[in-house]
Amino acid sequence: MPDHTPGDDTIAGVLMALAEARGPGKTFCRSEAARRLSDDWRPLMPEILRVAADLGLVATQRGRPVDPVSAKGPIRLRLPTASSKA
Known about the structure:
Mean pLDDT: 89
Number of domains: 1
CATH superfamily: Winged helix-like DNA-binding domain superfamily/Winged helix DNA-binding domain
Strand content: 5-15%
Largest sheet: 4 strands, antiparallel
Number of helices: 3
Radius of gyration: 12 Å
Helix content: 25-40%
Structural class: alpha+beta
Order of helices and strands: HEHHEEE
Number of strands: 4
CATH architecture: Orthogonal Bundle
CATH class: Mainly Alpha
């Protein structure tokens, strides 16, 4: 089976669907999005974070906001709240 990397629009659609399904204040793991996009999901993890940052989703570690592109380790994503918007 050929390698198919989903485009940014496809990744964005999955991210927003997950975020909206969870609702304000609720998080999801970026791997949930990656697993919906490909059976070989691990290589998609950096792209997931890049697109999440472009969408304005909030990345958190241990409940605190972090930069989604430079943070290392487990990261969860959520919709921004009034207090998390710049």
